[in-house]
Write the C-alpha cells for this entry.
Amino acid sequence: MTSLTIAEAAERTGLTAHTLRYYERDGLLLHAVERAPSGHRRYTDDDLRWIEMVTRLRATGMPIRDVRRYAALVRDGDGNESERLALLLAHREVVERQLAEVTSHLRAIDHKIALYENLAPAS
Amino acid sequence: MTSLTIAEAAERTGLTAHTLRYYERDGLLLHAVERAPSGHRRYTDDDLRWIEMVTRLRATGMPIRDVRRYAALVRDGDGNESERLALLLAHREVVERQLAEVTSHLRAIDHKIALYENLAPAS
DNA sequence: CTCGGACTTGGAGTGCACTCCAGGTCAAGG
DNA sequence: CCTTGACCTGGAGTGCACTCCAAGTCCGAG
C-alpha cells in the first residue's frame, strides 16, 4: 500500500516508467526513490504526492530546470518558504498570461469557425 | 504600404526573419512570398493577415504539420470548407481541453501558494 | 570604387523533454 | 535448471520548432 513498483507508480501518475527514472536522475524528486533488496524502485505515497505536484507544474508549462530549482528549495527544508512562494507566484503570473493569450487567440479562431459554419450551414 | 521587407514583416508579426523564412520553406504560407528585383522578399498585407492566422494556430499549440495541412486546404481553394471547419473544430476541442486542464492545475498550485502565504503572512 | 548592412540560400546546430536501447540482474513458475 | 518478465544502468536517439552559419548578392552612402 505504501510501496509501489515503477510500473504501478507510472500508472498512478500518468507518466511512463522512463519519465519517472528521468525525473529522478534530473533532480526533480526530493530524494532518490527507495529500493527493494533487488534494487528495484519502491515508490511511497509521499513520492507520489510530490510527483503529482511536479506533474502540475510541468502541465502548466514550468520548465524542467525551474521544477528542479523548486525541488531543491523544498529539499533544503525550512527557512526558504518565501523563495518557494516567489517561485510559485512568478510561475502563476506566466500561466495566467498564457491562459489569457490562448483564450484570446481561441476567440479569434472561433470567429473563423463561425465564418465557415455560416458558409455551409446545411453541410 | 502593401510591401514590407522581411525585417518589417518580422516586427509586425512578432516572429523573427528566420522563422518567417522557415514557415515559407515548410509550406505554412499560402504561396511563396513575392520578390523585389533584388530577390528580397516583399510581404503584402494579405501575407501578414495569413501569417497572423498561422500565429494564432501556433500560439494555441497546433503543431506545424497541422498548420501545413490547413494551409494546403486553403491553398486548394473552394470546395473543402467542411474539411477546414473540421480541422479547426478538432483543434478547438484540443485547446479547450488544455485550457481546462491548465486551469485546474493552476487552482491546485494556487492552493499551495495560499499555504505558503498563510505560513508567513508578515514576510 | 569601396564599404556596410540587409538580404539570399542550403544545410547544420540547438534546446528541450523525453524515449529508447543494449546488456545485465533478479525472483518466481514449470 | 531454465525461462520469462519486470526491473536496472549509462548513454544514445528522437521529434519538434526553431535558430544559426557560411558564403554569397545587392544597393545606397561616402
Chain A touches chain B through 33 residues (CB under 8 Å). Chain A has a mean pLDDT of 95.
